[in-house]
Design goal:
Mean pLDDT: 93
CATH topology of the largest domain: Rossmann fold
Strand content: 25-35%
Structural class: alpha/beta
CATH superfamily of the largest domain: HUPs
Largest sheet: 6 strands, antiparallel, barrel
Shape: globular
Order of helices and strands: EHEHEHHEEEHEHHEEEEEEEEEE
CATH architecture of the largest domain: 3-Layer(aba) Sandwich
């Protein structure tokens, strides 16, 4: 890629995209900044910050209004998932459908050769495939959030912070007179203006009385909506006992919150649907490591497809709080090779009769 190539930089006004844009300029690329207008709190302040960064870096800046598409694609699916008793990951959805979906398409249509982001992850060329790899900074690795990208998206993506860690990024910004508070990180869910229950209530999920149910089927108390609970939750249940109760399941059909003790949060197996491979294994069962959420330490396991995009995963060691609606990302070493959407845990430890 020649130095006259124009790169579309996804700008947020934060330290990561700012330093990523600077690095591209230093490598000789022509950099054009783009900012997504989204239905998020403090949008005008974000616009001011990103405009100031563009002036400082002396790069053009274009605003692209994706508020309607973001609401229809990300926010509506987020609300629908909670209504069904699932726990979604809107960042993964946004990266797939919006930031590196509609946004990327618009940048490419405007003549950009590639699109760059400030994610901490690496790209690896393997034959005719582009595989994502973990960042060398394990505390900041964001490859998990890119697990649903298609090959056509990965092929047009640049990750200037591939070999960087977060502290080096701050240091580089300060050296150029750009002051970003190190404690100021973006929210996990950028569009939440307040706490999650209040947001869901504002979006039409009205209180709906139901039962909190123990493993033996007995009712331990009431609840006002399953969307107020997540798998593994301990606080706010209001159930006194000698040992804590935890949410172990959400039954949307019966409007029940299922609770149990700590040991019932662990499972040796799960099922996924929407199975996608970045690099399909030559043989099954596939073996590697599986990451179950953004802050989960990946665990050794094996996978066997069940057909129609579904698969069964078995772990070497039981995993805690496997959560329907989240994503399982599959790694071979530091390479991200596939993903699936978690349907739920399987309560039994595999035996010779039910494991591959």
């Amino acid at each position: 890629m020649g130095t006259q190539t124009t790169i579309g930089m996804a700008m947020s006004g934060g330290v990561d995209s700012t330093v990523a844009a600077l690095l591209l300029k230093e490598q000789g690329y022509r950099v054009h900044g783009f900012f997504m207008l989204l239905p998020v709190p403090e949008l005008s302040q974000q616009q001011e910050r990103v405009a100031a960064v563009a002036r400082l870096l002396d790069i053009p800046l274009t605003l692209i209004d994706l508020r309607k598409a973001f609401t229809a694609t990300v926010i509506h699916s987020f609300i629908k998932a909670y209504r069904r008793g699932l726990t979604p990951n809107p960042c993964i959805c946004c990266n797939q459908e919006i930031k590196l979906g509609l946004f990327m398409e618009q940048l490419l249509a405007r003549g950009m050769s590639k699109v760059a982001t400030g994610h901490y992850a690496r790209l690896h060329k393997s034959g005719n495939q582009n595989l994502l790899r973990r960042s060398p900074d394990p505390r900041k690795d964001q490859s998990y959030f890119l697990c649903r990208l298609a090959e056509r998206q990965r092929a047009r993506l640049l990750l200037p912070l591939a070999g960087w860690n977060k502290q080096d990024t701050y240091t580089r910004a300060r050296a150029l007179g750009m002051d970003f508070p190190e404690s100021q990180e973006s929210q996990d869910v950028c569009f939440l203006p307040r706490d999650l229950p209040s947001f869901l209530l504002s979006q039409g999920l009205s209180p709906l009385a139901g039962e909190i149910v123990a493993p033996d089927g007995s009712c331990l108390g009431p609840h006002q909506g399953i969307w107020n609970y997540t798998i593994g939750q301990r606080r706010g249940l209001g159930i006194p006992d000698a040992t804590p109760w935890y949410v172990i399941g959400l039954d949307a059909r019966r409007n029940r919150v299922l609770v149990g003790k700590e040991e019932q949060l662990f499972s040796s197996s799960l099922r996924v649907h929407g199975l996608q491979w970045h690099r399909r294994p030559a043989l099954f069962p596939w073996q590697g490591t599986v990451q179950l959420r953004s802050r989960h330490r990946s665990a050794r396991g094996k996978l066997l497809p069940l057909g129609r995009g579904r698969a069964q995963v078995w772990f070497d060691q039981p995993q805690r709080a496997i959560t329907p609606g989240q994503y399982a990302a599959f790694y071979e070493g530091d390479k991200l090779v596939g993903s699936g959407i978690i349907e739920g845990p399987q309560p039994i430890t595999p035996t010779s009769a039910d494991s591959p």
